[in-house]
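Chain A, query sequence.
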Amino acid sequence: MNKLDEARNKINQIDQEMISLFKQRMQAVFEVAEYKKNHKLDVVDSSREQALLVKNLSILDDKNLEEYYQIFFDGVLKASKAYQKDLIK
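Chain A, predicted structure.
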């Protein structure tokens, strides 16, 4: 196995872990949506999103990856909000 195959195998393993974490996150999003629906709250909470981003970037602690993490995080938030909107309608 060459270096490329080894790196791709690592990516495949990480993707499997990310799928499991994604499912767990979306279960928590489901619970958030239920709460928001029952309390007539908006799906979008910009201050919460900004606070999460700041906190997560501090945990990331890698200036070279910040731009790419923000792209990743934006996608996670987009999926979470879309799921909440679907659940609340």
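Residues 3-88 form a domain with the Chorismate Mutase Domain, subunit A fold (CATH 1.20.59.10). The chain has a mean pLDDT of 97.
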